[in-house]
TrEMBL record:
The chain crosses the membrane at residues 7-25, 147-167. InterPro entries: HATPase_C_sf (IPR036890), HATPase_dom (IPR003594), His_kinase_dom (IPR005467), Sig_transdc_His_kin-like_C (IPR004358). It comes from Candidatus Avibacteroides avistercoris. The lineage of its organism: Bacteria, Pseudomonadati, Bacteroidota, Bacteroidia, Bacteroidales. Keywords: ATP-binding, Kinase, Membrane, Nucleotide-binding, Transferase, Transmembrane, Transmembrane helix, Two-component regulatory system. This is histidine kinase. SUPFAM superfamilies: ATPase domain of HSP90 chaperone/DNA topoisomerase II/histidine kinase (SSF55874). GO terms for molecular function: ATP binding; protein histidine kinase activity.
Length: 388
């Protein structure tokens, strides 16, 4: 696992610990507050009972202070006939306040939080036939505290998503810098020996103008110049133009067939009409080369590579198929990651560069359309059809 992946795991683990700790602490505090509010309501109910059963000349100062001290807990006092005797801390703001009151009372009664006390008869004895129910609900503070851990959990999740996104972008930026630096340094390092080779070729042509080896040397120098041009374009916005995709594919197929095993059949299945697209000629042919080279490597020197293309669904598509080893479905996306390779001496850059060229520079798409182990693979490139 790379550094970015490790940081993601650490952030997720920390977030999970914070979330669990928050839920546990909040639940503990909520339970304590519920118990405190229950105790307060028991005291409030006792004060209500004293008030109801007290003589007219008794000093009710302390009792009234207790009754009037409840400014947070919603409470409704209902007699044994179901009539509302008193209520506190309820939001009765509608014009039909009586209907609104009964709705809130019904909700509080449904919650089942109530304390009952019995009234005294005329002789001062407890009359079990007459009673009063005190229904109460959670205070606003308690309801907010109950919701708070879920809000905090949402904040933690958002934090994890943002952190993961930033880490991923940081990794991409870092990779881009590596690609750009490596590409430009490669182009720079190749420039000097290519210039020297060109000078030597010119000298050899003067002495041996018809030598086939000198002509082949000239072709290879042109290939090196093309490679330098490709690498120099990485990291900058390439110039695109309307190009004949059919000709590019045909040219690259001929080029690849001369440089791989003669037991590999490279053929093009061209449509009746040539297809044109808005591409960078140098970079697009590089992608075709990379796909063909990967296909050749997958066949161990024996097999067939088929290149085809066409138009459909307002897109221009190109497919490179082989009958090689195939790719496991779990690796369809992994193979485009920088550094991924199955070859002993491979760098794992070809498909990664191809993906960058198609998706970032041409705003297209490249993916594994089909693959089956032991039967082969088909890569598909999709580009915008500018003619639509």
């Amino acid at each position: 696992m790379d550094r970015t992946g490790s940081l993601k795991v650490i952030i997720i683990c920390v977030a999970v610990v914070i979330a669990i700790a928050s839920l546990v602490v909040s639940q503990t505090l909520t339970d304590r507050m519920k118990q405190e509010e229950r105790t307060k309501m028991e005291i409030w109910t006792s004060a209500m009972q004293i008030m109801s059963n007290a003589d007219s000349d008794a000093d009710m100062t302390l009792v009234l202070r207790v009754l009037n001290g409840n400014n947070t807990i919603p409470v409704v006092v209902v007699d044994d006939n179901g009539m509302i005797q008193d209520y506190r801390n309820l939001d009765i703001s509608r014009s039909d306040s009586l209907a609104s009151l009964h709705e809130q009372v019904a909700e509080i009664c449904k919650a089942g939080k109530n304390i009952r006390f019995y009234l005294n008869d005329r002789a001062g004895n407890v009359d079990h036939g007459q009673f009063v129910d005190v229904y109460y609900d959670d205070s606003l503070l308690l309801r907010q505290l109950a919701v708070f851990p879920y809000v905090q959990l949402g904040v933690v999740i958002i934090f994890v998503i943002i952190a993961a996104y930033l880490l991923t972008n940081m990794k991409k930026v870092e990779q881009n810098r590596v690609w750009v630096g490596l590409s430009r340094e490669t182009a720079h390092q190749l420039g000097t020996p290519i210039s020297s080779l060109m000078a030597w070729k010119d000298l050899l042509e003067e002495d041996h103008p018809d030598d086939a080896a000198v002509k082949e040397m000239g072709k290879d120098i042109e290939v090196l110049k093309t490679v330098v041009d490709r690498f120099s374009k990485i990291g900058s916005e390439p110039e695109v133009e309307i190009c004949d995709i059919s000709e590019i594919i045909k040219d690259r197929a001929e080029y690849i067939s001369r440089r791989i095993s003669n037991k590999i059949d490279v053929r093009c299945e061209m449509p009746a009409h040539h297809v044109k697209a808005l591409v960078s000629h140098t970079l697009f042919e590089w992608v075709i080369e990379n796909l063909c080279k990967n296909a050749a490597d997958a066949m161990d020197g024996v097999g067939a590579i088929i290149l085809t293309h066409g138009k459909s669904d307002k897109k221009i598509w190109v497919e490179v198929s082989d009958n090689g080893k195939g790719i496991p479905k779990s690796k369809y996306k992994t193979i485009f990651n920088p550094g991924y390779t199955t070859k002993e001496r491979g760098w794992g850059l070809g498909l990664s560069l191809s993906k960058r060229i198609i998706e970032e520079y041409h705003k297209g798409r490249i993916y594994v359309k089909y693959s089956e182990l032991g039967k082969g693979t088909t890569f598909r490139i999709e580009l915008r059809d500018v003619s639509v």
